[in-house]
Structure formats: C-alpha cells, structure tokens
Structures
1.
Amino acid sequence: MPVDFSTYITQLNDALAQENGAVLAYLLRPTSPHGKDLVKEFRDATRPLLNRYKGSMVSPWDEIAIQYVLVCTHVAKRRPGDAFQEHTTLVSQFLRFFQENRGWTLPALFSILRDLRDLAYDADFHARYNSQKSDFMEEAARVISKAFTHCITDRMSPPDQSRKWGVYYVAGLIMKSYFKVKRISLSKNILRALQANADIPPLSAFPRSHQVTYRYYIGMINFLNEDYTNVHYTFLILFPPVRLTVAFKAEQELTLAFYHCHVGADANQKRILTYLIPLRILKGHLPAEELLQRFPALKELLSPFISAIRQGDIAAFDRTLENNERRLVELNLWLTLEKARELCMRGLFRRVWIVAEKSTRIPISMFHCSLRVSGIDVTQEEAECFVANMIYKKFMLGYISHEKQMVVLAANNAFPRLADRQAPFALM
Amino acid sequence: MSSSSSAPKANEESKPVDQQKQEPLAQLGMLEEDDEFEEFEVADWDDSQTDLAHLSGGAPGAAKTGGDKLWEDNWDDDDIEEEFSVQLRNELAKMNPKGGATAETMEQ
C-alpha cells in the first residue's frame, strides 16, 4: 500500500518516540520506496503547496518532512541541482534537532550526509555536462563540516551515547568530498579539531568501517604531502626529517587501514594497496606473490618494478617507469616509484659484489662496467658518484679511495638488508 | 537518486547487492585515478574478516621474518646463474681476465 503524507508523518513520529536512528535514516532516504509514493501524491510538489503542512509535527520535523518531499520530487524530475539545494536545507533543519539529542541519531545523520554527498556528485556531473558552474561538492563539504562540529562539541551526553561517536565517520566523508574536488588542504581544520579534542574515544574503539576510511584518507593526505614537499627542495635539505615523518605516517596509516579492512571489500583493499605497496617497497618490504595474486590490476602494474628491483635490472626498471608514465602520474605514483630506482641500483651493485666474490676491494671500473651492461651510458666519474651516493645512503657500507679508484667495502654486511636500514624514508 | 541512477556514483552506494556481484570483472581491469574509496556495506566486523586473521602473532606489516607472510623482507639473492648476471660476469671477465682487479691495473 502506498505511503501517503499523513502515514509518513506518523512513521516519523514513531521513529522519534522510539529513538530508532536506523528507521529514521530509512525514512529520510530519497531512494526509499515511500519517496516515490509521496512524489505521486503531490504531483509536482512546490513549497507554497506544502507549506500548509507546517505544524503537522513538532518543529523542526514538520519542515524536514516537507523538505523530504521536495527532495524526492526534484530527484524524480531529474533536477539534481535543485534536489541538492533542498536536501541541504533538510540537513540544516536536521542539525537543529541533532544538536539537542544524543548518539542514537547518528545513523540518520550519516545517512543524510551520505545522500548530500551523492546528490552533490550528481549535481556537479549534471552541471558540468551543461557547462555550468559546478561547486556542489565543496558546498556539501562545508555543510558536512557543520555536522562534524555538532558531533565533536557534545558535552552533555553520557560517554556511551555521545554524538562524538560520529566524528570519524563524518571526518571521512569530509575528506572524501574534498579529495573529489582536489581541495585536500581544506581538510586541515577538521583534522586539527580532532587532535585538539582530548576526550574523543580512541580510534580503535570506533566501528571498523570508520577506522579504515579515516586511516585511508590520513594516509593519503600524508602520501600526497610527501610528493608536494619535493617541490620545496631547499626546505627539504634544511629539514629532511619532515619527509621522513610524512612518508612514515602514510605508511603506518595505510598499513593499519589495510589490515583492518574487510577482506570482502576488494575495491577498497586494492585502493589502499595501490599506495601502500610502493611505500613498503621503499622500506625493502616486497609484496609476497600471494598478496599480488589477490589483486590482478596491482600485479600487472607493480610486478615489473618488483622483479627489476629483485634482479637489480635498471634498464627494465627504467623501461617500466617510462612505459607507464602517464598512468603512474595520474595515480600520483610516479615520484614514489622513481625513488625506488635507487633500490634497483643497489641491487645491481650488490650483483657486482657477488660476481667479485664478495671482495672487500672492488675497482670503481667494475661498477662502471655493470652500469654499461645495464644500458646506462655514463662516465667513470659519474659511476663513482653513484657509488658515493649509495654509500651515503647506507645502501652499501664502505668508502671510496678516489686516488686508487677503489671501493673499499665492509668485511661484514657490506650490503645490509634493505628492511634493516634505519629510517628508510629519511634519505630517499 | 533512484531515478538519477544513470550517474555513475549513485549506483555504488544505493544498490550494493546487485552491483557487487559484477565487481570481480571490473577488478581485473583497471586502476582508475577517479576511483573512490567506497562506502562499506556493514559498519563493523571482527578480526576473522580481515587480513589480521592471517598474521601468526606478528604485527601488521611486519613481513615474513616478523610473522607476516604477505611481505618479504629477506629477498636478496646470491644466485647469479640467470641471464642478466651471467652477462654482467662475462663483461667483467673480459675487462679483468684474472678476475681480481688490482689498483695498478685500474690506474693505467
């Protein structure tokens, strides 16, 4: 039986009386079946037409019910921009209710914010298609940020019923919105607020879906910051630990995101690993075949780099980097993989050491020759520079006797395992 | 959004069940810059439904020597029989017929 407006109001009243957040979420979702019923009931509903229902419920719920009909109508008539605007009003009215209530309302909040984001996505898509201004997603992020404030400032509710249990989910939605429009730095305010609030429960106490999404975005923000810091080269020379911190943080957060992610959420696991694997490669941790098998797209993209590193095959490494340049740049992976080239050179020089039967004295000309075999056409001076760089970065232990053109290597552990290097991100 | 489902995004979240069935094919294909981190179908789950379940007591990401079989941290290989190494050895042998080069021969 179709749901008419008065039934809808009764259902809203019941959900409020029972403090049932999940039912409330269902009732406010534009895709729920009753949405279509209400659109039919009012034909082309307008605000003046619906205003007579003001007062039919306790405020602000009379307004929210009216907004809901308007949103559903615009969605049905394929007017995503209008649907977004009306839904924004619905969210604002809901927030008036939300800030005076406890955590049971969170499922409804999450649902309407998710819908807001989806409507912004549709509205931007539609606007771009018609060559119009498309800033709906940024507007959505601003509205969602207000909801975040109402979560984090809950000082009244008992801890187990606090609206604070919504902070990480909502923060995840905000970052997702800003990532979409490539305005990532705008996420900083909410991250600062999270750090400044000491009485938020530990992240590990939140549902796993909140933890994983939040960690993914924190990991990504750090991953991308690391790329950006490359631009400020002088700054880096002065403060190399800055890079260490961001890459380290990115690796740490993405590792936790991966391990706490549901194994059935393949697409999300793949997304995390796309950035986690290159970071871990820099640490000398190569993904096991078993892991790559599970993600064929990643295997296809990354295994040529991995086997080149294993074999110290710089020519193969460079070829792979060049052939995939566009794709790697699009994925923001190019710089990270380019740094892994040093691991490949270390592998090549280690081969020289093995061919020289792990001698402690190896002429620079041998390293020079190994580069030539690899198709790297450089002078012996340049080869000497490469060796010096390897020693400086502790890929090799030893020193160069420049007059004798000889590399003197440590008798023990001349090529430490990559995974054993201290602070592997510091000198990348 | 049900009616605007022609837009790519709305599908993912509003029809999780049907869509997920078709996912494996898409997985094999591409990594896209525009892919989004998806909404999870459930809010919470326990260790048995994560990759933590495969750790034999090690910390996540600790690599094989730390009990995490998904990562290899001990992969340096002393075997030089494969083509690339053989080629390198031949080339080096050509340059240093006696194998062990000395400082003198290098300074010529």
2.
Amino acid sequence: MPTKLKVREIKEYFGLELINEEADLDRKITVSDLSRPGLVMAGFYTYYPSERIQILGKTELTFSDGLCSEIRRERMTHLCQEDTPCIIIAHNLPVPSELVDVAKERKIPILRTTISTTRFVSKLTNYLEGRLAPTKTIHGVLIDVYGVGVLIVGNSGIGKSETALELLKRGHRLVADDVVEITQTADNELIGTAPEIIRHLLEIRGVGIIDVMTLFGAGAVRLRKKLTLVIKLEMWNKDKSYERLGLDEEKIKIIDTELPVNTIPVRPGRNLAAIIEVAAMNYRLKSMGYNAAWELSSRLTDEMDMNEL
Amino acid sequence: MVKKLVKVNLKTGLHARPAALFVQEANKFSCDISIEKDEKVVNAKSIMGIMSLAINSGSEIYIITDGVDEEQAAERLAELVSQED
C-alpha cells in the first residue's frame, strides 16, 4: 500500500514560507527522490525528473539570473510540469518573477526555506524516506524476547495475547498487541510499532483490557522494534507434519522482506512462552553461527563414516 | 470474498462498548472478517483492532468477509453498525 504525502504536510513540518498564496497545497508527493534542476536551467530537458520535488539553491538561481527574461521564462515553464509537486527555494533567496508567474498559472506551490541547500536536501530526504516507506497492518503480537523482535501470528482466540502476558511476566517487552503497524525502511528492515490509541494495552479474555506499562512498569514496554522472527501459532493438526529437526527454514514475506517463521502447534500442556523464548534464543545462536541441527547432522555423518571403515 | 461498504450510524460510533459488541458478533462466524477504514485494514474479531481505527459516527467502512458464512456475516455486521440506536 503506497503512502501518499501532500505538499501541505512538508510545508508545515519544515515551517516553509509559501510564496504564491493561491497554489494547490494538496498536490501529492509520490517519490522520495529530490531533484536540483541545474540542467533544466541550462536548457537540457531530456530525462527531467518532473515528478520529484525541485530544489533551487544558490547555483541554480545565480545561473538563471544570468539569462535574459525570455529564456528564463521558457526554462521556468519547463520546470513546472503537470506532475511536479512543488518547488522549494533554499537560502531564503529571492524568487525569479517568471517562476512565480508560471507557478501561479499552474497552481504549483513555491516554498522557501532559510536553511542552506545541502542541509535542507538531507533533512528532506530523511523525512521523505520515513514518510513514503511502504507500510502494512498485521494482526498479531510484537514482543521483544531477549532482544529478538518476535511477531506472533495466528487465528483469533488461539492465545497470542495470553502468550504475550506470560512472556511479559518472564521479563520480556511488549511492543504491540493485536495490531502491529509495520514499516519497511530503506535498507529492507521491518520496523513494528503499535497504533497510538492502543499503545501498551493488552486484551486478555475474561479480564479485559490491561495497561502493561502501569502494571509491569516502563521496563516492560518498547515503542518500536525491528522484526526478526515470526512465530505462527496454530491448532495441532495430527495430519500435518511439523518441523522436527530445524534443518530447513521456512520463510514468510511481509511487504518485500522475507523473515524466518516457526510454526508452533498449540495443544494443552504446551508452554508456549517457554517455546517462544527457546525459539528466540535458538535464532540468536543461529545468527551467531551455531546451528544445533547442522551439528547433529555432521556428528551423524562422522559416526556413519566411522562405521564404514 | 464479500466486500461491503457501510456507513456507521451508531450514535457513539464504534466506541468501547459498541466495539466489544461488534467483535462478539463477529466471533460468532467462522469466516475471516476484516474492517477497512482509510486504507487501514484490521481483524474484525479483535477488539484492539477495531478500537485502533477509532471509527466515529458517520464514517464509512468496508466490511470484508471471506469463508463459508461470508454472506451472512457481512449482512449481520453491516446491519449492526448501520442501525441508529
């Protein structure tokens, strides 16, 4: 689900000055890349990325000052395309009157900041990448177990929240119960957080809604956590074969990122919290290079080779 | 799969009590049920999910059902939220 951002939000977030009052601030920003259209100023129009926010700094504006009014108007006209979200002037520089005219006509907002171009570009890039990152809401519980971000999924009523409660009692930290908002950051990491309205709350059937932070203290909660492992709880099905060795790793795809998943069958008498703790620890061990299943497999190979001699 | 657009007419919208009632009703059906509002989709069988959307009176939501009793579920839940109490 692509997130959409309006020019208005950028204007408000960075406190930018709007030069042409009647411009349309509801224009959409669809890409996080920025453009410094120096070559457009010079009259080279091929590959002009018009869908990006255009930033005019000292270099671009000094160059355009050297042009005659007629040519400047032509270049500015080319700058303001149908899909150009807005034009931002850095350094609090004066805006060429030709640009104001064209932008007025096409209702493209011209915004101005007092910050220098390079600094503004890096601030804006950070902001855009965060805001335009793909997001998804997932039904599940996100909990930090020994520093591993574990997402517990499974059907309603299988006992996700109850398992989370048991994990909390064992000193682990809750991030989100029932609704996990997941954002995929630039370097393909999935970050999970809770919607603000239900942050730090847990619903336990028969008891009702409890506030984890008030009950267990600030040490029992986290605002956000990177997802590293998925635990899928499902009713024990005797016809289904569950992982016995751990040699093969099952994967699940969330947005565009793959995560390892352990399917845990639920049956009375199985302590899910202990199993999840062990799964998290085992995951850490594996990421440190030790895999018990491989170790067993190699011992078996050695033993069999010995017997052959 | 059934996707139904309904307007919430309950006076308090899906506030805590009506949300609990809604979830209770949703749990009577065996199909998967989700609610969509402003491109956000949550599980309708979870009270926290419904409340995280903060659905107020007059807002429009989609009820999405998928499974054996999808028709009845969509019908019943739509009826529940669209009634004026």
3.
Amino acid sequence: MSYKLVTFKNVCKNFEKIPAVKDINFDIGKGEFLAIMGPSGCGKTTTLRMLAGLEIPSSGEIRFNNRLMNNVKPHERDTPLVWQSLALFPFLNVQENVEFGLKMRGLSPKIRNKKSLEWLEKLEVKELAKRDISTLSGGQKQRVALARSLVMEPEILLLDEPLSALDAHLVIRMQAVLTQLQKELDITFVYVTHSQSEAFAMADRVIIMNVGEVSQIGTPKDIYRSPTNRFVAEFVGRNNILSGKVYDIKSNIAYIKTNAGCFNFQLDKNKPIQKGDKINYIISADLMNFSSVKPQKSNIINCRLISEEYVGSIVTLFLESTDGTEFKIQITERELSKFNIQNGNKYWLSWSEKNVHVLIEE
Amino acid sequence: MKPTKNNLNIYSLTFRLPIIIWQLLFFVGPVLFMVAMSFFLVKNYRMTEAFEFINWTKMFSKNYFWDSYWFTIIIAGTSTLLTMLIAFPASFTLAFKVSDNIRRWAIFMLIIPFFTSYLVRTFSWYVILAEKGVINAFFSYLDLGPFKMLNTHIGTLVGYMTLTLPLVIILQTVTMANIDRNLIEAAYNLGCKPKSIIQRVIIPLSKTGFIIAAVFCFILSFGDFVAPFYLGGSQEPTLPILILDTTKSGQQWPRAAVVAIVMMITLFSIAFIGIMTAYSKSFKK
Amino acid sequence: MTKEKYLNFILITYLIFIFVFIFTPIAFSVIFSFNSQRFPTIPLGNFSLEWYIKIFNDPGVWQAAINSVIVSLVTCILATFLGFCTAYSDYRYRFKFKGLYLALVLLPPTIPLIILALAMLAWLSKIGMSGQLWSIICAHSVLTAPFAMAIIRLRLNQIDPDLESAAWNLGGSEWATMRYVILPYCKPAIISSLCLTAAVSFDEFAISWFVSGLNKTVPVIILEIVQGNIDPQVNAIGTFVFFTSMTLVITAQIFFLTWQMKGKNK
C-alpha cells in the first residue's frame, strides 16, 4: 500500500449499548478501490457512515490524512457518499442537484454551472440537466447521484450499495463505469455491498465483515482462494467445505477422514499440521472435475445429481454423496454438453490434492 | 435513519422550545389559572384571590346545576347515538359501494363544512326550521303542519349534527374502508348473509374506529353552546350555556370555572373509558 | 341480483340525502343573502342586493373584516411556525418526556372552545393582555398549531430518511440543510397548513367573543347580530365568510392531495 489515506484504529460503535462494530482495524490506501462486504447487519454500513461522520465512534480513532476525525461534523468533511436510496433532492432538477454541494461551499453560480455541466457530461447525462428527478430512469438517477458526489472533486468517494436497486444488465454496465472512473480520476473508492460479484469484479482489496468484526482483509483472489476462516469460506460461496480429522501424514501429503470418505491434501510449509488435528477441508467448486466414469485418482467421490443452475455460460451442479453431504461444482456449459446429464444419475467428482485449502478448526 | 437521540444544542432547541414556551404561556397557564380561579371569591362584582371552597359547595348544592349536568349528558349522548346511526348507512355506502375515486371526492367534500363557519350554518338552520321557515312552508302545501322544530330538542339535535355528522362519516368511512376485503369475501363464501356480515365482521373489526368517532362526536356536542342556545331555545340550559350566562351576565367567573372543570373531568373520563374499551376489546381477539 | 341493485339504489339515495342535509345550510345562506324578504322562506321573494349594500356601508363590518384578516393572517403564520418546529422535532429527535411534549401540543382541540374561552379570558385579564387583537391571536395559535403540526408531520413521514444526511454530506450545515432541503421539501404542506389554520381562525367565534373586547372579528359581529333579531345581513356576511374559508380549505386540500399522490407514485 502506497500512502495511508484513512486509518481505523480499534474503532467500536454501540447503539444503545448494543455493539454494531467491534474493535475494527484497517487502513485505506490512496487511490485504492476498497470493497467492504458482509451479510446484512454485519456493520459495514455503520463503518461507512462513521467515515462520513454520520455516526460518531463510541471508542477508537478514525484518521484521515493523519488528522483525527472522530468529532468532525459531517458537513466539515470532504467525504461525499453515494446513497443506496440515492437521496436525490426531489424538489430540485438534475443540474441543481449536482450543484448542491458547490452551493453549500459558497461557490459562485457561474462556476457552479460550469462544473456541474462538466461532470454531467463526464457521466454522459448532460442532456438531462434541466429534467425533473422523478422523470429519470434508474440508471440515469444513478449517474446523476455519482455526478453530484464527484463534482465535489473529493480525495475519497463512499458508495453504499449504490447498484442494489438496478436491473442485472445495468449493474454490469455501471460496474464498468465505476471502475473506469476510479482509475481515470485516481480517487479512493470505499464501496459497501453484500454482493460478492460486485466486490470481486471491481475492488483492489476486499474487507469481509461479520457481526461487527473484520473477518478477513485481502485481494479478491486471496479471499476467494485462501479464506482464513470458515465464515469467509462459506460467505464467499461455491466452496465445498468438509470437516474432518487428520489421521496420517506421509512426506508432504496429509490424509483426512470425513463423513463423506477419506481424502488427502498437500501440506503447506507455512501451515504446520499434525496428526489428530481437526480441520476444515475446502475445495472451490470451480476446481473440481466432473466425469461419468470412475477416474483413477485419489480424491474422488461418487454423487447423485440433484439440480443444475445456469448463469451465463457457467453451470453450477448440485450433487449429493451417499452419506448425504452436498457438493457443488462449476463447469462451463460447453464442457457439460459432453455429458448426457440427467438428475438422479450418479457421477464422479474428483480434485487434485494441490487445490485443497485447509483451515485448522479452533 | 431512526430519530436521533436526545442531543441538546442550539439547533435542536430552536425547534423544540417554541411550542413548549407558547403552550405553557397560553394553554397550561390559562387552564391552571382557571382551576385556581374556582377557589377565588367575588365581592361586589370584584374578584379577589383566595382559597375557599364556597364556589364548589354553592354550585354543587344548586338543583339547576345538576339538572343541567344530566340534561347535557343525555342530550349529547342521544345526539352521539343518533349521529352514529344516521352516519352508518352513508359511511357503509362510501366504504363498500362506491369507487375509490368517488370516496376520495366525498371525503374531500366532507372536510369542507368542518372548516367553514358553524355559526352561519346554524343561523341558516334557524331560518329553515322556523315556524314560517322553508320546511314548514313546504309542509303547508301538503296541508300539514306547521310543526314546531325550533326551540325544541329536535332543533338542538339538528344543530349538533351540523357540527358532528361530517366528521363522524369521515371517521366511519376511513375505518371501514381499511378493513381487509378478503375477510368479507371469506365470510360471504362461508355463507354469511349480508346482515350478519355487518354484525359479525364489519362492526367488530371497526370497533376501535367507531368508538373514537363516537368519543369525538360526544366531545363536540357536549361542549357546544350554539346549537342548544339558538336552535334549542335554552329553556333547559346545557353546561356550556351555564358557563356563558355565569360569565357574561353575572360576572361570576369562579363559578363558571367550577362548571368548566366539571365538564373537563367528565369529558376526560368518558374519553378515557371510550379509548380503553376501544383498545381492550381488540386485544382479546 | 336485482335485490342487491335495489339495496344499492336505496343506499346511494340515502347518501345523497345526507349530503343534502350537510350542504343545505350553506346553500340556503347564499340563496337568502340575495333574497329581498326580511324573513326568508319559500316562495322566495325578489332578487335583491339590499343586504350586501347594507353591510358594505357598515363601518363596523369593515372594521371587523380588517380585524379578522389580521387575526387569521398572523395566526396562520404563527401556528404554522409552531407546528413546523414541533413536527420537525418529533421527526428528527428522540428525547425524554416526548409523550408529554406531544400531548401538550395535541390536547387543545379536544377541549371545548367555551372552556378554553373562559380560561383564556381569565388568564389574559390576569396578565393584562385582554381585549386586544393579540389576545385572539395567541389563543387561536394554541388552537390551530396542532392542525399545522399534523399536516407537516404527515409530509415529513414521506421524506427519504437519507435526504437530510445527504445534504450534510455535501457540505451543508444543519441550518443550511434546514433552509435548502427540509423547508423546500415541506413547502406544499406548509402552504396547506397556512390555509387550513387561517380558515379555522377566520371562523372561530367562541374564544374571539370572550377575549376580543371592542376589537370584534367577523364571527363575533355575526354572533351579536344573531343574538338581536333575525337579520338577513347575516346571510350576506355569512356568504362572504363561507367563500373565504372554502377557498382556503380547498386550496389546502389541493396542495395536500397533490403531494399525497406524488408520494404514492414513488
């Protein structure tokens, strides 16, 4: 990380004695695209609101450019937020909405007009300048809301689930608009979402939060491939997680016994594992192989196909082993078409011992 | 965003304090002073501050006070019952038999009289109901009448209804229009006859709203002096007329205060009982 | 089926009858005001502007009209200001004794006017404020502020709860946000409230009669004429009063309904 723009140090927030955020610590680098992700009620929005000054931390320190921000009023900060509800002013037209922040700063009408048009143009909605907010489509409102925040030319832009109200195809388009803007303007983005695809598609780094605590911080790849705890492994989804006990270790291969059968994995030098350890044995759904005949390998299991789910060209198959454990596998539709698949039939799943990620159970 | 917790600063107090100061000065102040005044003495048409119970004992020992008290309760109660009954078929029609649009317009219309001069409307009734007024002129064509309506209880009741009927219809309509239509459909499908649907479904479900309408109706009738005075003839004075007479002619403000306090206690008790029954009944279900 | 149609016919007829009952006094007051008879009845007398000319030439009526306008104008501004402050406090803040605070605001309309009138008269005489236009204004604002509060509170119910925070977030102080966001948002409700409180104040007679002293308002004049004898002047004045308050009430409702509809479309 280059320069630390924002620092959270031991930050806690309680609402009427009920903790919403518990002792979180992290930094945000300058020019970084950071996503904060987690299930609802995990404290992600509270964290963002503290950054905007809309909530005051109960304890701990929030620093911005090394300045302590805890008691700085929201309007004295330069942390524009793009709201989940968008919160556009319904009694102002598009351009007046965009000019609002500049007006609050006391800029002259001439400069306000120039800047607001400039930003509306950058977001390709200049022709809507005189329109009423209620006449805009969802995507257009989104762009106006972005323009209203960006016209402040801040160092950091906060986004609270800004795409949650949009249709799926618009979400993809707006993701591209956002990433491009972020690179172009070199502004720090802090993006709160519950959507894994949004976070992983755009962010440089992702923070996963759960019940008010930070579960893991890392690049999307880190989080996807090497979750550091079971919550993250489950939350990220599409992971097959088995619980078991190590019963043997030979050279750099460990053997484990689970309800679904016995499997093995390659040991990692940084993660010492001993015989008798209880572990979570994780194989990502996209790293599994699918076949109709029994492969001659070590990590295999025979499963009955239950259902399939198509998202674009990727298919997720849901299967069940004889002991009732559920398995997921992701393969391309093209590859799947080689098989004559039918629900209820039995197939073989297999994976390499190198692709296994393990977590020692506490 | 939930309402922000109590934080005292200039901004929040700017909005919170004005009404407190204003109501203390011009609402709580007057009412408390009136209570205090009921213990003052009047000598030679001049009021002196004191703490004596003489006004209370004097008023309570007078027969005309108690006559007036019961008369007011009975006539306001009768008016409430009649208004509720007369309003019901109209509200029922508005709630179930007309389109949403017509209902909205009807309510729009019913709000208008509530905010227009009650006094002029009463005077208009005075002329219409008089012995040679419009209604009796109409009856004389049919060789009927003349009927005496002015200076009778009928006059008083017409006056009360002028005041309360629009409000009662609005409250009843809104209450019934909010009943879940599926419940009525279900009762209908189960073989309930229309009459028993009204008795067993609509009225029990609208109980709270109806009681609130009745309480409002009672408060308005109980406190009104115009209808009994101009249309009812004031031979049997109601409590408001008693206050009026005592204040305006006799200079006996402390005694008027006694009457006013008795009225307030009566109203609050009735409102309290009404609201308690309105909510307790719906709780049991 | 035919039975139900028959029943529906009866119900609709009944409803129309009720509306006739409610609007009869208003209609007759207007008709009688143009009628030449001293004691109006049917058949109607000739069309006449006699009563209008009479009140037009009566300086007492003019003075009362001016007083009424002043009282309702100041009352509606004062009551709407008080109602707005209270509605905003209720919307924005939680605080101790809030139930008591709201009761204090909403109680006055449930107390009979004659009682408020007596209490006002006694209190204002005590503090030496009786018999002036100000006395009426103070009393009327207490009476009408709850209406203002209710209307504006309904509008604030519809506000996007993030709107105020969004304005702070864009650099607006609390005061600037009040000026540029909350007030413009509440504008239709504020107009509604101004009209409605003005209408109530314009028609109120009990308190005005008790505390006005020599500064009579229009309803007090009407009350005094009615106490004397039958005089169709009342109908002429009444017609003016009706049209003034109906205009106010309908304007208030139009503003109210427009934003109610807009709120629903959202």
4.
Amino acid sequence: MARYFTEEHEWIDLEGDTATVGITDYAQGQLGDIVFVELPESGTMLEKGKDAAVVESVKAASDVYAPISGEVTEANSALEDDPALVNTSPEEDGWFFRMTVSDKSQLEGLMDDKAYKSFCDEL
Amino acid sequence: MGCFSAVRGASMLATKGCVLSDNTDTPQEIEQLPLDAWHRRKGARMVPFAGYEMPIQYSAESGGGIVAEHEWTRSQAGLFDVSHMGQLMLTGENVAAELEKLLPGAITTLKPGKVRYSLLIDEDGGILDDLMVTNATPWIEADEEAGTEGHWGDPAYYLVVNGAMKWDDIAHLREHLPDEVTLTHMDEHALVALQGPNAATALNRVMRNTIEDMIFMESVIHDFGEWPLRITRAGYTGEDGFEISVPAEFAESLCDRLCAEIEVRPCGLGARDSLRLEAGLPLYGHDITTETDPVSADLGFALTKRRREEGGWMGHEKVMDVFNSGPARKRVGLTFEGRLPAREGAKVFDDDAEIGRITSGGFSPSLGHPIAMGYLEKSHIEPGTEVEVEVRNKRLPAKVTTMPFVPHRYHRGK
C-alpha cells in the first residue's frame, strides 16, 4: 500500500483502485479541536481541486478539497459521533472517505512520507 | 483543502466564517507586543490580530488547545495577554463632563476606583467602539510636614478600548475633546487578564491578600514591589477575574509570577473568543459596529437613565428614536442541537422569510453544542422562538434564547 501526501495536508492511501483520504497530523494540529466533519455521501463524484468535505473546528470552518478525481464509495461514519477522532487519530481511525481513482496520473507528483515531512519542516 | 493551501499558522485562520480576524484595514507592519517572546517560549501559536502578533493558543504538550484552555478558565484561572488593547489616560479639569459628551454613560457620578462599561457613539447613533472607563483619580495621602490632609488628586480617567479600534478612537477623542483634556496613550504598558473561578485565590496569594476586598468593576493602583500595577476586577469571559495593567518592562516577570501558581495557565485568543461568546458578550466589529445602535445591540444598560433623559452626547437623538420606538431588529442568542456550528454571516429564516443574520457563532465547549448571537427581526426575538439558520445550503433548527449562555460568575460582594 502506498501513501501519498498533498501540499494541502491530505494523505491518500492507495490500495488497488481504491483510495482512502484523510488529513494529516500536521493539519489537525493547525486546525485545533475539531467539532464537526461534513463528509460527501457515497456516490458523490469528486473532481480534483473541488470541494469534498468541510472541517469545523472550534474557531473556524475549513474546506477540504478533493486531492484526486473519483467517486466516493464510503464516508467514515465514525466521525459523525466522534469528530475528535480527527485530532486523536488523524492518519488512521480519523480517515474521511474512500473513493475510486479516475486517473492514476493525478497521483504523480504527490509527496511520499519523507518528502511531506521535510515540506512541513519548511513551513 | 482551500485554507490549507498555505498552512502557516495565521493563514489557517483565514477561513470562512472565522471571527478571529480583525475586520479593519490590515496595517502594513505586524508589530510585536511586550510578551511576544514569553508566548513563544510557552509554545504559543502566534497569529496576526489587530495589527499585532498574538497567541491564538498554546501547544498541546503544555496543556494548551482552545478547548483545554477554555475549560481551564471555566474551572481554574486562565492568563490572557490583551496588550493589543488600547490603554488611554485622560486628565484635565472637566474631563468627566467632556467625556460624557461622547458616550451615554454616567461618568461625572462614577466614584474614584469604580469602573463602567460604555460605548463611543457616532452622530448617527452607531457604535464606534465599546470600552471600559475607570475613574482613576488618585488619592493623595496626608502629608504632615506639608500640613495637608488626605485628598483626591487631579481627575483622571483610564480607558480600555479595542485593539483594532484604538487608533480611530484616539483620533475621535482628540478631535472632540477640548485642548484642556490631555490624552495619554499608555503604549508602554502591557495588559493581562487573569480569569476564572480561582483567579482571586491565585492573585491574592501572589499579592499577599491586598486585593481581597475588591468587587466586580472596581480598580486599584497596587505597587507590587517595584511594579506599579493597576488591577481591575473585570474581564471578558463571564468569570470572576482581573485585568492587570503593567509597565512593559515588568510584564514577563508578572506573567511568570502568576503562572507559577498551580491554578494559572496561559490561554490564547481562541479560548477568549469562545468564552466571551458563551458569556453573551459582544465583539466589536462583528456583533456591534457603526451599523448597529446600543438599543438594537441589547446594550440598553449602558444608557444611564439620567443620560438618556438629559442627552448632551453624540448620537443621543438617533439612539433615543430607537429607544422610544423600539428597534426593528435586536441582538439575541441562538442555541442549536447537533454539532454543526453556524458562524458569522449565516442567514436566519422563518420558512422562506429571511429574518436575521448571525454575527458570532461557534461550538460551545462548556455546553457541548453550537451557540450563536445575531440580529433578528423583532417578531422573532422572544426566547423559545424556533427559527432556522442556513449553513452550506442546509437549514439548522435553532431556538432563540436569553444570554448569557453560560451564567456570569462575577464577584459582586455581599
């Protein structure tokens, strides 16, 4: 399984033709206490760079844009009851949604773990 | 992630519906306040606010985070740096009477050591700023050698105004106060607020019980060793607490001294905002502006009866028109079920009719559900009225409620 990172602080796990998407530990740290996550429903067609989800922290609402294009196959229902999972387990239990991958070439140029870490160190 | 496109501390806050940005023209230079290095040592995340780098929250490793700091202030004592606010000293022969020409509160009858919340009103009855006015007239001790008895010194009034508005306020005051009144901008002073149910316990321990007789809205000069402090029992969280004005050079030492107490932890602007929202206290630039008047803003308590009747203050006629006929819209509180917060700018509906707008909103850490304040048409301001608030094309059911959302716990004495 390969994990990719975007400069918008999302992670993407690729397993076959399915991608799981979430936000990184760095991102949740910047957002602070998360009180609500609005996720796309199954069947929603996402277009790379367009609205996919909204994260509400105590202080503000933040858009999450789709890192790649594809169809949502599952949203993480655990976040409905416990949105703070994004704070406590951002890169595992606090995943946002799973989606198909329309165009694998969109994954090219994304960062791996090491590249993302040095990207964050520069911020 | 739109806002994430540049997650660099401050830019994180430049997201929609965020109240933690000042809405005035952003100055070119973002300045540092006296406690800047102190905050950074404490692991604060600094953001530009009102033209300064300010701590929004402290690191999770040191017990920080907006909710943690919020809860700490509700249960212990939070220490907030509010040095961005404008501290002004007005002196001169008729300063109280002159000040009364610019605001609707009773200042001439405000006794030395007492504090009053008031408003600067413009000619159209709009709110230029809200502020605290303290009668800071000093007591001059008896001098046996000189043969003088103890007496009140020259009149002095200490004003604390909003950071984002202070330059406009100073210009307004200078323009309208006569030359006999001297305005001193105390920009060599820091201002910190110690807030929470254990604030008095901690401060009394530090100050050797010298402030234990103070009640809410009283202010004293207190020399703590070589530090000349002004301590005022007031705040912006709904909790008992104190605001301490300290010369910049002693600010770090004072904060270290206070944070050495087991009850005290530093808290940032994020918690300050959620605390004041729960306390139902308006934030200038959001809940009150020049487009709102004191009556619509439900700040009628700041319009002293004598001042209402006698007038003689800027905007009196316009404000009294609203006072007498009743406002078309009024600032009220709204509570929500669920977890999705409605934020500033969200529209309020009764069926298809738009009947108001949210001016501040967020998730209440103390109550565990979203709360908001906003202006609703007078037909919908009765507590219990059910309305709907639009958030991202969804309608959230909400109920009009009296404020504060979380009861005030001021120390009003026996």
